[in-house]
């Protein structure tokens, strides 16, 4: 993609700066010791939906030693990448942290009670979905954000 726009003066230096910043943040994240946590990252309500382990979101969370549940891979595309959570799955008892994403569904504090009902042993928080799920220029900031959450 950079090559298609390389004739614009700022594109190549900006792309190189983004790559360098991401590489630095990946190193900082790997050097930070984060306790493992089992996470349910909710992206939708009605029905509850989460992310498969082979999604960008799940891989970002794994950078701070957070394992997304359920333990499924969804494939390259399609609905299986975003499994439905019914609320009666046995693995919900093993979730340490419920993350309510700010997007695509705009979760708010009013959803904590409902989320805690399906994961009574977990802590719940609202997270910035743009920083966690938008790759590219937001990836480095997303890693900084996750390190802060995991600290």
Radius of gyration: 17 Å
Ranges where pLDDT stays below 50 over 5 or more residues in a row are: none
Major β-sheet, in short?
4 strands, parallel
Derived structural class: alpha/beta
Describe the protein.
- By secondary structure, this protein is an alpha/beta fold.
- The protein has one domain: Nitrogenase molybdenum iron protein domain (Rossmann fold, 3-Layer(aba) Sandwich).
- About 35% of the residues lie in helices and about 15% in strands.
- The chain has helices at about 10-30, 55-60, 110-120, 130-135, 140-150; strands at about 35-40, 50, 65-70, 85, 95-100, 125.
- The strands form two sheets. It has a four-stranded parallel sheet. Strands 2-4 form a two-stranded antiparallel sheet.
- Strand 5, helix 3 and strand 6 (about 125) form a beta-alpha-beta unit.
- The longest helix is centred in the first third of the chain and has 21 residues, at about 10-30.
Features:
151 residues; alpha/beta; Rossmann fold; two-stranded antiparallel sheet; globular
What's a quick, concise take on this entry?
With 151 residues, the protein is of the alpha/beta class.
Topology:
Elements: H1 11-31, E1 37-42, E2 48-49, H2 56-62, E3 66-68, E4 84-85, E5 97-101, H3 112-118, E6 123-127, H4 129-133, H5 139-150
Parallel strand pairs: 1-3, 1-5, 5-6
Antiparallel strand pairs: 2-4
Helix pairs in contact: 1-5
